TrEMBL record:
<dbReference type="GO" id="GO:0003677">
    <property type="term" value="F:DNA binding"/>
</dbReference>
<dbReference type="InterPro" id="IPR045173">
    <property type="entry name" value="Cdt1"/>
</dbReference>
<dbReference type="GO" id="GO:0072708">
    <property type="term" value="P:response to sorbitol"/>
</dbReference>
<dbReference type="GO" id="GO:0071163">
    <property type="term" value="P:DNA replication preinitiation complex assembly"/>
</dbReference>
<dbReference type="GO" id="GO:0033262">
    <property type="term" value="P:regulation of nuclear cell cycle DNA replication"/>
</dbReference>
<dbReference type="GO" id="GO:0000076">
    <property type="term" value="P:DNA replication checkpoint signaling"/>
</dbReference>
<dbReference type="GO" id="GO:0000776">
    <property type="term" value="C:kinetochore"/>
</dbReference>
<comment type="similarity">
    <text>Belongs to the Cdt1 family.</text>
</comment>
<feature type="compositionally biased region" description="Pro residues">
    <location>
        <begin position="80"/>
        <end position="103"/>
    </location>
</feature>
<keyword id="KW-0539">Nucleus</keyword>
<dbReference type="GO" id="GO:0003682">
    <property type="term" value="F:chromatin binding"/>
</dbReference>
<dbReference type="InterPro" id="IPR014939">
    <property type="entry name" value="CDT1_Gemini-bd-like"/>
</dbReference>
<dbReference type="InterPro" id="IPR032054">
    <property type="entry name" value="Cdt1_C"/>
</dbReference>
<protein>
    <recommendedName>
        <fullName>DNA replication factor Cdt1</fullName>
    </recommendedName>
</protein>
<dbReference type="GO" id="GO:2000104">
    <property type="term" value="P:negative regulation of DNA-templated DNA replication"/>
</dbReference>
<dbReference type="InterPro" id="IPR038090">
    <property type="entry name" value="Cdt1_C_WH_dom_sf"/>
</dbReference>
<dbReference type="GO" id="GO:0030174">
    <property type="term" value="P:regulation of DNA-templated DNA replication initiation"/>
</dbReference>
Length: 555
Protein backbone atom coordinates (compact mmCIF):
# COMPACT_ATOMS: atom_id res chain seq x y z
CA UNK A 1 0.00 0.00 0.00
CA UNK A 2 1.37 3.35 -0.94
CA UNK A 3 2.36 5.73 1.79
CA UNK A 4 0.16 8.81 2.27
CA UNK A 5 1.63 12.24 1.76
CA UNK A 6 1.27 15.34 3.86
CA UNK A 7 -0.22 17.25 0.97
CA UNK A 8 -2.96 14.69 0.51
CA UNK A 9 -3.93 15.10 4.11
CA UNK A 10 -3.95 18.92 3.76
CA UNK A 11 -6.22 18.75 0.72
CA UNK A 12 -8.63 16.36 2.40
CA UNK A 13 -8.66 18.39 5.58
CA UNK A 14 -9.74 21.54 3.66
CA UNK A 15 -12.11 20.44 0.94
CA UNK A 16 -13.09 23.99 0.00
CA UNK A 17 -9.54 24.94 -1.06
CA UNK A 18 -9.49 26.77 -4.34
CA UNK A 19 -6.71 27.49 -6.73
CA UNK A 20 -5.30 31.00 -6.19
CA UNK A 21 -6.34 33.50 -8.80
CA UNK A 22 -3.66 34.56 -11.19
CA UNK A 23 -2.86 38.21 -11.74
CA UNK A 24 -4.54 39.92 -14.63
CA UNK A 25 -2.38 39.79 -17.69
CA UNK A 26 -2.42 42.92 -19.85
CA UNK A 27 -1.33 42.61 -23.41
CA UNK A 28 1.38 45.14 -24.35
CA UNK A 29 1.19 46.58 -27.89
CA UNK A 30 4.33 46.18 -29.97
CA UNK A 31 5.30 46.78 -33.61
CA UNK A 32 4.71 43.12 -34.33
CA UNK A 33 1.32 43.01 -32.69
CA UNK A 34 -0.02 42.42 -29.22
CA UNK A 35 2.19 40.11 -27.21
CA UNK A 36 0.96 38.52 -24.05
CA UNK A 37 3.57 38.16 -21.35
CA UNK A 38 4.32 34.72 -20.02
CA UNK A 39 1.93 33.62 -17.36
CA UNK A 40 3.37 33.10 -13.92
CA UNK A 41 1.66 31.36 -11.13
CA UNK A 42 0.92 33.03 -7.89
CA UNK A 43 3.62 32.98 -5.32
CA UNK A 44 3.10 29.53 -3.78
CA UNK A 45 5.63 27.28 -2.20
CA UNK A 46 3.79 24.16 -3.29
CA UNK A 47 5.60 22.16 -5.88
CA UNK A 48 3.68 20.28 -8.60
CA UNK A 49 3.85 16.54 -8.17
CA UNK A 50 4.49 14.27 -11.11
CA UNK A 51 1.57 12.13 -12.30
CA UNK A 52 0.95 8.88 -10.52
CA UNK A 53 2.58 5.83 -11.84
CA UNK A 54 0.32 3.48 -13.76
CA UNK A 55 1.24 0.56 -11.54
CA UNK A 56 0.39 2.33 -8.33
CA UNK A 57 -2.76 1.35 -6.42
CA UNK A 58 -3.56 4.93 -5.35
CA UNK A 59 -6.73 6.15 -7.06
CA UNK A 60 -6.75 9.43 -8.89
CA UNK A 61 -9.26 11.84 -7.32
CA UNK A 62 -11.78 13.58 -9.52
CA UNK A 63 -11.49 17.24 -10.52
CA UNK A 64 -12.68 19.70 -7.87
CA UNK A 65 -15.53 22.10 -8.48
CA UNK A 66 -13.09 25.06 -8.46
CA UNK A 67 -11.90 24.10 -11.90
CA UNK A 68 -14.16 26.64 -13.54
CA UNK A 69 -12.04 29.41 -12.04
CA UNK A 70 -8.99 28.47 -14.08
CA UNK A 71 -10.42 30.51 -17.01
CA UNK A 72 -8.81 33.61 -15.42
CA UNK A 73 -11.72 36.04 -15.59
CA UNK A 74 -9.38 38.93 -14.63
CA UNK A 75 -7.84 38.73 -18.08
CA UNK A 76 -11.10 39.81 -19.66
CA UNK A 77 -11.22 42.96 -17.57
CA UNK A 78 -7.86 44.34 -18.87
CA UNK A 79 -8.48 47.49 -20.91
CA UNK A 80 -5.60 46.86 -23.29
CA UNK A 81 -6.84 43.43 -24.36
CA UNK A 82 -10.48 43.52 -25.44
CA UNK A 83 -12.25 40.20 -25.48
CA UNK A 84 -12.57 38.45 -28.77
CA UNK A 85 -16.02 37.00 -29.34
CA UNK A 86 -14.76 34.92 -32.22
CA UNK A 87 -12.58 32.76 -29.96
CA UNK A 88 -14.85 30.65 -27.77
CA UNK A 89 -13.75 29.58 -24.38
CA UNK A 90 -12.58 26.10 -23.79
CA UNK A 91 -15.45 23.83 -22.62
CA UNK A 92 -15.13 22.79 -19.07
CA UNK A 93 -15.91 19.19 -18.07
CA UNK A 94 -18.74 18.82 -15.62
CA UNK A 95 -17.76 18.66 -12.02
CA UNK A 96 -19.48 17.00 -9.16
CA UNK A 97 -20.25 19.70 -6.59
CA UNK A 98 -20.65 17.22 -3.85
CA UNK A 99 -17.33 15.58 -4.23
CA UNK A 100 -15.04 16.27 -1.30
CA UNK A 101 -12.03 14.85 -2.98
CA UNK A 102 -9.00 17.09 -3.21
CA UNK A 103 -8.06 18.24 -6.68
CA UNK A 104 -5.15 16.50 -8.24
CA UNK A 105 -2.00 18.55 -8.60
CA UNK A 106 -1.35 17.04 -11.96
CA UNK A 107 -4.70 18.13 -13.32
CA UNK A 108 -4.26 21.60 -11.86
CA UNK A 109 -0.94 22.09 -13.57
CA UNK A 110 -2.23 21.00 -16.91
CA UNK A 111 -5.21 23.34 -16.73
CA UNK A 112 -2.93 26.26 -15.91
CA UNK A 113 -0.73 25.56 -18.91
CA UNK A 114 -3.80 25.34 -21.12
CA UNK A 115 -5.04 28.74 -19.94
CA UNK A 116 -1.62 30.35 -20.58
CA UNK A 117 -1.58 28.93 -24.09
CA UNK A 118 -5.00 30.40 -24.69
CA UNK A 119 -3.75 33.87 -23.63
CA UNK A 120 -0.72 33.60 -25.89
CA UNK A 121 -2.96 32.69 -28.77
CA UNK A 122 -4.99 35.85 -28.18
CA UNK A 123 -3.01 38.07 -30.62
CA UNK A 124 -4.48 40.79 -32.83
CA UNK A 125 -5.81 39.62 -36.08
CA UNK A 126 -4.52 40.68 -39.52
CA UNK A 127 -7.49 43.00 -40.09
CA UNK A 128 -6.71 45.04 -36.95
CA UNK A 129 -3.02 45.49 -37.97
CA UNK A 130 -4.02 46.75 -41.42
CA UNK A 131 -6.48 49.23 -39.95
CA UNK A 132 -3.83 50.55 -37.57
CA UNK A 133 -1.35 51.04 -40.41
CA UNK A 134 -3.95 52.88 -42.45
CA UNK A 135 -4.64 55.20 -39.52
CA UNK A 136 -0.91 56.02 -39.19
CA UNK A 137 -0.67 56.65 -42.94
CA UNK A 138 -3.62 59.07 -42.89
CA UNK A 139 -2.05 60.94 -39.97
CA UNK A 140 1.33 61.25 -41.79
CA UNK A 141 -0.37 62.60 -44.91
CA UNK A 142 -2.22 65.18 -42.84
CA UNK A 143 1.00 66.40 -41.14
CA UNK A 144 2.75 66.60 -44.52
CA UNK A 145 -0.02 68.79 -45.93
CA UNK A 146 0.21 71.10 -42.91
CA UNK A 147 4.00 71.43 -43.31
CA UNK A 148 3.69 72.32 -47.02
CA UNK A 149 1.05 74.95 -46.24
CA UNK A 150 3.24 76.50 -43.54
CA UNK A 151 6.26 76.61 -45.86
CA UNK A 152 4.24 78.34 -48.57
CA UNK A 153 2.95 80.90 -46.07
CA UNK A 154 6.50 81.71 -44.90
CA UNK A 155 7.67 82.23 -48.49
CA UNK A 156 4.75 84.56 -49.22
CA UNK A 157 5.57 86.66 -46.14
CA UNK A 158 9.21 86.89 -47.20
CA UNK A 159 8.35 88.12 -50.70
CA UNK A 160 5.43 90.44 -49.85
CA UNK A 161 5.26 91.77 -46.28
CA UNK A 162 1.77 92.07 -44.92
CA UNK A 163 2.11 95.65 -43.61
CA UNK A 164 4.02 98.59 -45.10
CA UNK A 165 5.67 99.56 -41.81
CA UNK A 166 7.15 96.09 -41.44
CA UNK A 167 9.17 96.41 -44.63
CA UNK A 168 12.85 95.95 -44.15
CA UNK A 169 15.32 97.33 -46.68
CA UNK A 170 16.69 94.29 -48.44
CA UNK A 171 19.09 96.10 -50.74
CA UNK A 172 21.91 96.64 -48.30
CA UNK A 173 25.61 96.19 -48.99
CA UNK A 174 27.18 93.07 -47.58
CA UNK A 175 29.11 94.41 -44.64
CA UNK A 176 30.69 92.59 -41.76
CA UNK A 177 28.24 91.96 -38.95
CA UNK A 178 29.03 93.93 -35.81
CA UNK A 179 29.38 92.14 -32.47
CA UNK A 180 26.33 91.79 -30.26
CA UNK A 181 27.62 94.20 -27.61
CA UNK A 182 27.64 96.91 -30.30
CA UNK A 183 24.36 96.00 -32.04
CA UNK A 184 22.40 95.87 -28.76
CA UNK A 185 24.33 98.47 -26.80
CA UNK A 186 21.27 100.68 -26.30
CA UNK A 187 19.31 97.83 -24.73
CA UNK A 188 22.02 97.15 -22.14
CA UNK A 189 22.08 100.68 -20.72
CA UNK A 190 21.10 100.90 -17.04
CA UNK A 191 18.27 103.05 -15.78
CA UNK A 192 15.14 104.21 -17.53
CA UNK A 193 15.14 104.35 -21.35
CA UNK A 194 16.01 107.75 -22.74
CA UNK A 195 17.84 109.40 -25.62
CA UNK A 196 20.68 106.87 -25.68
CA UNK A 197 23.40 107.30 -28.29
CA UNK A 198 24.57 104.40 -30.48
CA UNK A 199 27.76 102.61 -29.52
CA UNK A 200 29.81 104.10 -32.36
CA UNK A 201 28.62 107.61 -31.47
CA UNK A 202 29.60 107.14 -27.84
CA UNK A 203 33.07 105.95 -28.92
CA UNK A 204 33.40 109.07 -31.09
CA UNK A 205 32.35 111.27 -28.16
CA UNK A 206 35.02 109.64 -26.01
CA UNK A 207 37.60 110.23 -28.76
CA UNK A 208 36.65 113.91 -28.85
CA UNK A 209 37.03 114.17 -25.08
CA UNK A 210 40.51 112.58 -25.20
CA UNK A 211 41.53 114.68 -28.19
CA UNK A 212 40.34 117.89 -26.52
CA UNK A 213 42.33 117.00 -23.39
CA UNK A 214 45.57 116.43 -25.33
CA UNK A 215 45.07 119.57 -27.45
CA UNK A 216 44.41 121.70 -24.37
CA UNK A 217 47.62 120.49 -22.68
CA UNK A 218 49.74 121.29 -25.75
CA UNK A 219 47.97 124.57 -26.49
CA UNK A 220 48.24 125.89 -22.94
CA UNK A 221 52.02 125.54 -22.97
CA UNK A 222 52.30 127.24 -26.40
CA UNK A 223 53.36 124.12 -28.25
CA UNK A 224 52.46 123.38 -31.85
CA UNK A 225 49.76 120.73 -31.88
CA UNK A 226 50.29 118.12 -34.61
CA UNK A 227 48.23 115.08 -35.46
CA UNK A 228 51.12 112.75 -34.61
CA UNK A 229 51.22 114.01 -31.01
CA UNK A 230 47.44 113.88 -30.61
CA UNK A 231 47.23 110.38 -32.10
CA UNK A 232 49.77 108.97 -29.67
CA UNK A 233 48.06 110.53 -26.64
CA UNK A 234 44.52 109.50 -27.62
CA UNK A 235 45.54 105.89 -28.31
CA UNK A 236 47.26 105.66 -24.94
CA UNK A 237 44.15 107.02 -23.17
CA UNK A 238 41.52 104.94 -24.98
CA UNK A 239 43.46 101.84 -26.03
CA UNK A 240 41.79 102.18 -29.45
CA UNK A 241 42.99 103.14 -32.92
CA UNK A 242 42.75 106.84 -33.72
CA UNK A 243 43.09 107.79 -37.38
CA UNK A 244 42.55 110.86 -39.55
CA UNK A 245 39.13 109.44 -40.42
CA UNK A 246 38.04 109.92 -36.80
CA UNK A 247 39.31 113.51 -36.91
CA UNK A 248 37.21 114.06 -40.04
CA UNK A 249 34.14 112.70 -38.24
CA UNK A 250 34.79 115.09 -35.34
CA UNK A 251 35.00 117.96 -37.81
CA UNK A 252 31.69 116.89 -39.35
CA UNK A 253 29.90 116.83 -35.99
CA UNK A 254 31.56 119.96 -34.53
CA UNK A 255 32.93 122.11 -37.40
CA UNK A 256 33.84 125.11 -35.19
CA UNK A 257 35.95 123.15 -32.71
CA UNK A 258 39.34 123.20 -34.46
CA UNK A 259 41.19 124.80 -37.34
CA UNK A 260 43.25 122.35 -39.42
CA UNK A 261 46.26 123.32 -41.54
CA UNK A 262 49.18 121.66 -43.32
CA UNK A 263 52.47 123.20 -42.18
CA UNK A 264 56.12 122.37 -42.66
CA UNK A 265 59.24 123.15 -40.61
CA UNK A 266 57.46 122.09 -37.43
CA UNK A 267 59.96 121.00 -34.73
CA UNK A 268 59.88 117.23 -34.34
CA UNK A 269 61.82 114.87 -32.15
CA UNK A 270 61.36 111.74 -34.24
CA UNK A 271 63.63 110.30 -36.87
CA UNK A 272 60.68 109.04 -38.90
CA UNK A 273 59.35 112.58 -39.49
CA UNK A 274 61.61 115.11 -41.17
CA UNK A 275 61.44 118.76 -40.29
CA UNK A 276 60.80 119.68 -43.91
CA UNK A 277 57.77 117.36 -44.18
CA UNK A 278 54.25 118.74 -44.08
CA UNK A 279 52.26 117.88 -40.96
CA UNK A 280 48.60 118.31 -40.04
CA UNK A 281 48.44 120.97 -37.32
CA UNK A 282 45.42 121.43 -35.05
CA UNK A 283 44.48 124.75 -33.48
CA UNK A 284 41.52 124.98 -31.06
CA UNK A 285 39.01 127.70 -31.84
CA UNK A 286 38.21 129.60 -28.64
CA UNK A 287 34.80 131.08 -29.18
CA UNK A 288 31.98 131.81 -26.79
CA UNK A 289 32.84 128.75 -24.69
CA UNK A 290 36.19 130.22 -23.65
CA UNK A 291 34.70 133.63 -22.84
CA UNK A 292 37.55 135.51 -24.51
CA UNK A 293 40.30 133.52 -22.73
CA UNK A 294 43.46 132.45 -24.52
CA UNK A 295 43.71 129.04 -22.84
CA UNK A 296 41.46 126.00 -22.65
CA UNK A 297 40.26 125.73 -19.07
CA UNK A 298 38.33 122.87 -17.46
CA UNK A 299 35.05 124.79 -17.79
CA UNK A 300 35.68 125.37 -21.48
CA UNK A 301 36.46 121.67 -22.03
CA UNK A 302 33.23 120.68 -20.31
CA UNK A 303 31.16 123.08 -22.41
CA UNK A 304 32.76 121.85 -25.65
CA UNK A 305 32.07 118.24 -24.65
CA UNK A 306 28.39 119.07 -24.01
CA UNK A 307 28.09 120.80 -27.39
CA UNK A 308 29.60 117.79 -29.15
CA UNK A 309 27.21 115.36 -27.45
CA UNK A 310 24.21 117.57 -28.23
CA UNK A 311 25.23 117.60 -31.92
CA UNK A 312 25.34 113.78 -31.89
CA UNK A 313 21.86 113.63 -30.34
CA UNK A 314 20.54 115.97 -33.03
CA UNK A 315 21.87 113.65 -35.72
CA UNK A 316 20.12 110.67 -34.15
CA UNK A 317 16.92 112.72 -33.87
CA UNK A 318 16.99 113.28 -37.64
CA UNK A 319 17.14 109.54 -38.25
CA UNK A 320 14.38 108.99 -35.67
CA UNK A 321 12.17 111.57 -37.36
CA UNK A 322 12.61 109.83 -40.74
CA UNK A 323 11.72 106.50 -39.11
CA UNK A 324 8.51 107.92 -37.61
CA UNK A 325 7.51 109.31 -41.00
CA UNK A 326 7.91 105.85 -42.60
CA UNK A 327 5.44 104.20 -40.21
CA UNK A 328 1.86 103.41 -41.15
CA UNK A 329 0.28 105.70 -40.11
CA UNK A 330 3.13 108.20 -39.88
CA UNK A 331 3.92 109.83 -36.56
CA UNK A 332 5.20 113.30 -35.67
CA UNK A 333 6.66 114.15 -32.27
CA UNK A 334 8.07 117.61 -31.41
CA UNK A 335 11.80 117.39 -30.80
CA UNK A 336 11.65 119.45 -27.63
CA UNK A 337 9.17 116.99 -26.12
CA UNK A 338 11.01 113.81 -27.15
CA UNK A 339 12.37 111.97 -24.09
CA UNK A 340 12.97 108.48 -25.49
CA UNK A 341 13.23 106.70 -28.84
CA UNK A 342 10.46 104.70 -30.50
CA UNK A 343 10.46 101.05 -29.27
CA UNK A 344 10.90 99.74 -32.80
CA UNK A 345 13.63 102.24 -33.65
CA UNK A 346 16.96 100.40 -33.67
CA UNK A 347 19.36 103.00 -32.33
CA UNK A 348 22.52 100.99 -32.94
CA UNK A 349 21.78 100.68 -36.67
CA UNK A 350 22.01 104.43 -37.29
CA UNK A 351 24.37 105.07 -40.25
CA UNK A 352 27.91 106.08 -39.47
CA UNK A 353 29.07 109.70 -39.70
CA UNK A 354 30.75 110.64 -42.95
CA UNK A 355 34.22 112.15 -42.29
CA UNK A 356 34.85 115.68 -43.51
CA UNK A 357 37.73 116.49 -45.82
CA UNK A 358 40.92 117.55 -44.07
CA UNK A 359 43.69 119.71 -45.58
CA UNK A 360 46.14 117.64 -47.57
CA UNK A 361 49.85 118.40 -48.04
CA UNK A 362 50.64 120.20 -51.31
CA UNK A 363 51.79 118.02 -54.16
CA UNK A 364 55.48 118.70 -54.76
CA UNK A 365 56.94 117.94 -58.17
CA UNK A 366 59.76 115.42 -57.99
CA UNK A 367 62.41 115.69 -60.68
CA UNK A 368 63.71 112.27 -61.68
CA UNK A 369 65.59 112.90 -64.93
CA UNK A 370 68.15 115.46 -66.04
CA UNK A 371 65.81 116.67 -68.78
CA UNK A 372 63.20 117.63 -66.18
CA UNK A 373 65.84 119.44 -64.10
CA UNK A 374 66.98 121.52 -67.09
CA UNK A 375 63.44 122.37 -68.08
CA UNK A 376 62.62 123.44 -64.54
CA UNK A 377 65.75 125.61 -64.29
CA UNK A 378 65.02 127.26 -67.62
CA UNK A 379 61.52 128.19 -66.48
CA UNK A 380 62.89 129.84 -63.33
CA UNK A 381 65.44 132.06 -65.10
CA UNK A 382 64.63 135.62 -66.06
CA UNK A 383 65.12 136.76 -69.69
CA UNK A 384 68.03 138.96 -68.66
CA UNK A 385 69.83 136.08 -66.96
CA UNK A 386 69.16 133.77 -69.90
CA UNK A 387 70.65 136.34 -72.27
CA UNK A 388 73.72 136.76 -70.06
CA UNK A 389 74.29 132.99 -69.97
CA UNK A 390 73.98 132.74 -73.74
CA UNK A 391 76.58 135.52 -74.21
CA UNK A 392 78.90 133.77 -71.77
CA UNK A 393 78.54 130.53 -73.68
CA UNK A 394 79.42 132.29 -76.92
CA UNK A 395 82.53 133.90 -75.41
CA UNK A 396 83.70 130.65 -73.92
CA UNK A 397 83.35 128.94 -77.30
CA UNK A 398 85.54 131.49 -79.18
CA UNK A 399 88.98 130.53 -77.74
CA UNK A 400 88.39 126.89 -78.60
CA UNK A 401 87.67 127.58 -82.26
CA UNK A 402 90.23 126.25 -84.86
CA UNK A 403 92.87 128.72 -86.11
CA UNK A 404 93.36 130.43 -82.77
CA UNK A 405 95.99 129.38 -80.30
CA UNK A 406 96.27 130.83 -76.84
CA UNK A 407 98.91 130.06 -74.24
CA UNK A 408 97.68 128.06 -71.27
CA UNK A 409 96.74 130.18 -68.32
CA UNK A 410 98.07 129.43 -64.84
CA UNK A 411 95.78 127.59 -62.43
CA UNK A 412 94.02 130.38 -60.60
CA UNK A 413 90.72 130.39 -58.77
CA UNK A 414 87.86 131.35 -61.10
CA UNK A 415 86.82 134.97 -60.97
CA UNK A 416 83.19 134.40 -61.92
CA UNK A 417 80.78 131.86 -60.40
CA UNK A 418 79.38 130.50 -63.70
CA UNK A 419 82.87 129.29 -64.69
CA UNK A 420 83.15 127.28 -61.44
CA UNK A 421 79.88 125.32 -61.53
CA UNK A 422 77.28 126.83 -63.84
CA UNK A 423 74.79 123.97 -63.51
CA UNK A 424 74.70 123.97 -59.68
CA UNK A 425 74.20 127.73 -59.33
CA UNK A 426 71.53 128.21 -61.95
CA UNK A 427 68.68 130.36 -60.71
CA UNK A 428 70.71 131.97 -57.88
CA UNK A 429 71.02 135.73 -57.85
CA UNK A 430 74.40 136.94 -58.92
CA UNK A 431 74.46 139.72 -56.31
CA UNK A 432 73.81 137.19 -53.54
CA UNK A 433 76.69 135.04 -54.72
CA UNK A 434 78.96 138.06 -54.73
CA UNK A 435 78.07 138.96 -51.12
CA UNK A 436 78.65 135.41 -49.93
CA UNK A 437 82.04 135.23 -51.55
CA UNK A 438 82.99 138.62 -50.12
CA UNK A 439 82.23 137.39 -46.58
CA UNK A 440 84.21 134.23 -47.13
CA UNK A 441 87.16 136.24 -48.29
CA UNK A 442 86.90 138.52 -45.25
CA UNK A 443 86.88 135.55 -42.83
CA UNK A 444 89.85 133.97 -44.47
CA UNK A 445 91.70 137.25 -44.37
CA UNK A 446 90.91 137.74 -40.65
CA UNK A 447 92.01 134.21 -39.83
CA UNK A 448 95.28 134.66 -41.63
CA UNK A 449 96.02 137.96 -39.87
CA UNK A 450 94.87 136.94 -36.34
CA UNK A 451 97.46 136.79 -33.54
CA UNK A 452 97.73 133.70 -31.23
CA UNK A 453 96.35 135.60 -28.22
CA UNK A 454 93.22 136.49 -30.14
CA UNK A 455 92.86 132.88 -31.32
CA UNK A 456 93.09 131.66 -27.72
CA UNK A 457 90.58 134.24 -26.57
CA UNK A 458 88.15 133.14 -29.33
CA UNK A 459 88.45 129.50 -28.22
CA UNK A 460 87.62 130.52 -24.66
CA UNK A 461 84.64 132.52 -25.87
CA UNK A 462 83.26 129.45 -27.66
CA UNK A 463 83.37 127.44 -24.41
CA UNK A 464 81.64 130.11 -22.28
CA UNK A 465 77.95 129.15 -22.98
CA UNK A 466 78.54 125.64 -21.71
CA UNK A 467 80.57 126.82 -18.73
CA UNK A 468 77.82 129.29 -17.78
CA UNK A 469 75.29 126.45 -17.43
CA UNK A 470 77.73 124.37 -15.38
CA UNK A 471 78.53 127.33 -13.12
CA UNK A 472 74.85 127.94 -12.37
CA UNK A 473 74.27 124.26 -11.52
CA UNK A 474 77.24 124.39 -9.10
CA UNK A 475 75.71 127.32 -7.21
CA UNK A 476 72.28 125.65 -7.16
CA UNK A 477 73.69 122.42 -5.74
CA UNK A 478 75.81 124.21 -3.12
CA UNK A 479 72.88 126.41 -1.97
CA UNK A 480 75.18 129.31 -1.09
CA UNK A 481 75.13 132.91 -2.33
CA UNK A 482 78.94 133.05 -2.78
CA UNK A 483 81.79 130.56 -3.17
CA UNK A 484 85.55 130.84 -3.25
CA UNK A 485 87.39 130.68 -6.55
CA UNK A 486 89.20 127.44 -5.61
CA UNK A 487 85.96 125.62 -4.77
CA UNK A 488 84.21 126.86 -7.94
CA UNK A 489 87.13 125.85 -10.19
CA UNK A 490 87.37 122.39 -8.59
CA UNK A 491 83.62 121.74 -9.01
CA UNK A 492 83.60 122.95 -12.62
CA UNK A 493 86.64 120.88 -13.59
CA UNK A 494 84.80 117.77 -12.38
CA UNK A 495 81.55 118.69 -14.17
CA UNK A 496 82.79 120.13 -17.46
CA UNK A 497 83.06 117.89 -20.53
CA UNK A 498 86.22 119.63 -21.78
CA UNK A 499 89.40 118.63 -19.98
CA UNK A 500 90.74 121.81 -18.35
CA UNK A 501 93.09 122.51 -15.50
CA UNK A 502 92.01 124.62 -12.47
CA UNK A 503 94.24 127.47 -13.67
CA UNK A 504 92.70 127.41 -17.14
CA UNK A 505 89.23 127.26 -15.59
CA UNK A 506 90.02 130.38 -13.55
CA UNK A 507 90.91 132.28 -16.74
CA UNK A 508 87.55 131.30 -18.24
CA UNK A 509 85.77 132.60 -15.15
CA UNK A 510 87.62 135.88 -15.34
CA UNK A 511 86.63 136.26 -19.00
CA UNK A 512 83.02 135.42 -18.13
CA UNK A 513 82.97 138.07 -15.40
CA UNK A 514 84.36 140.55 -17.90
CA UNK A 515 81.66 139.93 -20.51
CA UNK A 516 78.72 139.50 -18.10
CA UNK A 517 79.38 141.71 -15.09
CA UNK A 518 75.69 141.95 -14.16
CA UNK A 519 75.42 138.16 -13.79
CA UNK A 520 78.81 137.10 -12.40
CA UNK A 521 80.82 139.24 -9.99
CA UNK A 522 84.20 138.67 -8.27
CA UNK A 523 84.90 139.98 -4.77
CA UNK A 524 88.43 140.14 -3.32
CA UNK A 525 88.37 139.69 0.47
CA UNK A 526 91.75 139.43 2.18
CA UNK A 527 93.64 136.61 0.45
CA UNK A 528 90.61 134.87 -1.14
CA UNK A 529 88.49 135.69 -4.17
CA UNK A 530 84.76 135.03 -3.84
CA UNK A 531 82.44 134.42 -6.79
CA UNK A 532 78.85 135.62 -6.58
CA UNK A 533 76.14 134.64 -9.06
CA UNK A 534 72.65 135.86 -9.91
CA UNK A 535 70.55 132.66 -9.94
CA UNK A 536 67.39 134.41 -11.16
CA UNK A 537 68.89 135.43 -14.52
CA UNK A 538 67.68 133.78 -17.73
CA UNK A 539 70.24 131.40 -19.18
CA UNK A 540 68.80 131.69 -22.67
CA UNK A 541 69.39 135.42 -22.77
CA UNK A 542 72.92 134.99 -21.38
CA UNK A 543 73.71 132.38 -24.03
CA UNK A 544 72.47 134.76 -26.75
CA UNK A 545 74.71 137.55 -25.46
CA UNK A 546 77.73 135.25 -25.40
CA UNK A 547 76.98 134.05 -28.95
CA UNK A 548 76.84 137.67 -30.09
CA UNK A 549 80.31 138.29 -28.60
CA UNK A 550 81.69 135.20 -30.36
CA UNK A 551 80.25 136.33 -33.67
CA UNK A 552 81.57 139.88 -33.24
CA UNK A 553 85.12 138.81 -32.39
CA UNK A 554 85.23 136.00 -34.92
CA UNK A 555 84.99 138.36 -37.90
Amino acid sequence: MAQSRVTDFYACRRPGLTTPRAKSICLTPSPGGLVAPAFTRSSSRKRARPPAEPGSDQPVPPAPPARRRLRLPGLDSCPSSPPEPSSPAEPSPPADPGSPVCPSPVKRTKSTIVSVDQQRNKVPSEDSSISELQTCLRRARKLGAQARALRARVQENAVEPSTPDAKVPTEQPCVEKAPAYQRFHALAQPGLPGLVLPYKYQVLAEMFRSMDTIVSMLHNRSETVTFAKVKQGVQEMMRKRFEERNVGQIKTVYPTSYRFRQECNVPTFKDSIKRSDYQLTIEPLLGQEAGGATQLTATCLLQRRQVFRQNLVERVKEQHKAFLASLNPPMAVPEDQLTRWHPRFNVDEVPDIEPAELPQPPVTEKLTTAQEVLARARSLMTPKMEKALSNLAMRSAEPGSPGTSTPPLPATPPATPPAASPSALKGVSQALLERIRAKEVQKQLARMTRCPEQELRLQRLERLPELARVLRSVFVSERKPALTMEVVCARMVDSCQTTLSPGEMEKHLLLLAELLPDWLSLHRIRSDTYVKLDKAADLAGLAARLAHHVHAEGL
